[in-house]
Structure formats: structure tokens, C-alpha cells
Amino acid sequence: MSARTDKPHETVERALELSRADGCVVIADEHSTANLRWAGNALTTNGVTRGRTLTVIATVDGKEGTASGVVSRSAVTAEELEPLVRAAEAAARGAGPAEDARPLVTGVPAAPDFTDAPAETSSAVFADFAPALGEAFARARAGGRELYGFANHELVSTYLGTSTGLRLRHDQPAGTLELNAKSPDRTRSAWAGRATRDFKDVDPAALDAELAVRLGWAERSVQLPAGRYETLLPPTAVADLLIYQMWSASGRDAAEGRTVFSRPGGGTRIGERFSELPLTLRGDPHEPGLECAPFVVAHSSGDDRSVFDNGLPAPATDWIREGVLRRLTTTRHSAALTGLPVAPAPGNLILDGGNERSLDEMVAHTERGLLLTCLWYIREVDPATLLLTGLTRDGVYLVENGEVTGQVNNFRFNESPVDLLRRATEAGRTEKTLPREWGDWFTRAAMPALRVPEFNMSSVSQGV
What we know:
GO biological process, one term: proteolysis
Helix content: 10-25%
Structural class: alpha+beta
Radius of gyration: 24 Å
Number of strands: 20
GO molecular function, one term: metallopeptidase activity
Strand content: 35-45%
Protein name: TldD/PmbA family protein
Order of helices and strands: HEEEHHEEEHEEHHEEEHEHEEEEHEEEE
Largest sheet: 6 strands, antiparallel
């Protein structure tokens, strides 16, 4: 048995056999990536990588409670497997009782493909995309544009086994494309991004055409001061804001009075209306095109996850339903503490319930306002209101009488996604999107564009 030739499920089984702890969870993540990078209308690098990470979670019962120890390592050989298991057991014995301790999950049917070989990606994932990208380079060159960017595809096969008999498996493909178009003098820049499972639904020519239009808009420059403007947020910007809101939606933190989801005087705001629009914010592991693991995979414990919950089914959940807050994220432990339903954190996020207008159609119905491209460098200012700050990037455009009339300067913004949902007056057509700020951690999102009156552009930014 070696890190390269043994089968992941065999490594999981062997680690469980070696365990001397009261409970054990083993997670083997077999991952492979393929990527392309380009600059100045020419491919620069490409590559393929493969690897495996093994995580062993040992639980030890004691008079004061159950402790857990977690150890993760990459490229574990046969000789290193038993020391890894012993290290996890030693970590558990050296730790105090785990606050989130619960009995390990039982009763989940085994995955029929648990013993199958891991899925892998390769450069073949770009078989159709790469030639189309080359054609986009030629068109951009002829049009006086320079294209920069990268395409990345990752496939992770996760094998999860426990001492209570769980044998689960999930294959997760994730692809991202980021494309920048720049004018030859580098004074104008436009960005577009896409999330994909297999690069078969990504059209470089269409993206280049979109960026060419935006560079054309930027030929006229208008300077605007800081202030509050009616603003059209494209799906990528909406995703970045609502992903951060989701990460902040811990049921325990809300019940303990620490977040925007805390009710004054005690308890949570579940049941309150968060939007006058009939918007539904939800997660669903079986959402077409956004599929994710239908069970909990927790390599560590935190506010919204627990290693004791590994293998727990993660069903479809409405977080906000038709404008009303319905769920906050909980583990089994935090659900018991707060009296809230068990609601594992999602692997995808969808906002729907808007009209069917495209972003272009929303622009056509705008008398005067700003159209954003994307947001960047988002940071939290105040957890009590979930006030966030960040920057606009790669194009902010002025809309007048239903048409884009030029590019304006970039801004720093100060807004809360919770308040934006409350104030939004229109939501357009929901579509799959790539969050630019959080795309390294969260790619499975579908959002509409939002129209927000008086979006707070708090200061002018000199960024491009």
C-alpha cells in the first residue's frame, strides 16, 4: 500500500482497523486539478496535479465527557498510516471534553460506489474550451484588446468511513474561469467570471464579446463623488454578499445575542420578514448544475460544523422563504443548545423569486444609476448589523435613461447584505454565477441581479 497505488477506500478501512479509540472517523480526499493561464492574448502555463489528504478524527470517552483529536496529513504512506492514527488518538487524550460532543452518526446507507476508484480530472477537460479560447485571443487581438486570466478545474473524491459503520462517498467537480480584458494602454479593464462543472457550458467568444462592450463603455470617463446611488448589483456581487451573510448565520451566535440575526431582548429573528420581495434563499445538494455533498463532511469543528456530525444527511433547506427568515445554520450540538432545528451549513446557495428580467433589461428600465461589475476585498465592520466594507473593481458604469453612458470611478462601499435585501426594489432572473471575492472557497451559487436604491458608496477609490 502506498500513497499513489492503494485505493482510498482501503486506506479508510485500514485506518479504522488500526484505531484503538472509542470512536473514529476517517476522511480520504483524493484531489486532482488541471489549469490554464494566459496573458496578452497568449497561453502562458498549464498543468495537472494530483494528491491525497487523509484526516483521522479520534474520539475518547471520559468521566467528564468525550474528547476529540483531529490530525490531517498529505501523501500518507503505508508506514505513516498507523502513526497518523496514533497521533489523532494522542490528541484526543490530551484534550479536554469537546463541547460539541455527540454520538457519531449511524444509520446512513452505504454509498454503492464506495469501493470504486476516485474520479479524476485532466487536461482533457479543456478539449473544447482551449481551441475556443485561442479563437477569442485572435478576435481580441484584432479588436485591440488584451486578454488575461486563468481556467481551473478540480475534482475531489471524498471517502468517509466511521467506526459506527458509515461508508459514504462524494465526487465534487468544480471549475472556474476568470477573464480580464484590458485596453493596450492598461487604463481600461473589464472582468467576467464563470463557474462550471466541466467547461462544456463556457463560451470564451461570448465572454470576450461581453468584455469588448464594457471596454467600449469605458471610453467615456465620468468622475462622481461619494454618495448614495441607485445601483444594479450583478449576480456575482450579490453572491459575494450573500455568501458572507450565510457564513455569518450561525444559530448559536444569534441565540447568544452576537449577530444581526439576534432578536433584541433574546432569541433569534427567525420568523421575521427580511425582504419585501418574495425572495427565497436556499441550499439544495441536488440542485441541477450546483450539486454538492448530500451529507456533512467536517474536517474540523467550528461555529457551523462539528466533526461529530460527519455523515449526517444535509437536506435541501430554505434559509429565507418568500422574504421571511426560516432557518439558521446549526450542528446537532448547537441545535440542542438553542432549540432550533438541525440545519447543516450549505455547499451551495441559491436566491430566487425575482422576475425574469436579464441584467440588460434591468439597465433598460433604469432612469439614472450605477451598474457594477464586481466587488473586491470585502471585510466585516460590525457583526451586530453585518455591516461590510469593500471595493468596486473592473468597471463601474453610469446608466442614464436606460443606457450605459460611460464609466465612472471606483468606490469603497459600506453596506449590510441583510439591509440590502430589505431595501431591494427589484430582483431579476436567477442564473449560475461565480463570486469573485469568495470564488477560491465557494463556487456553487445562483443569484439574480438586484436593484438597490441609495447604495452607500462611502468614498472614492483610485483602484482600476
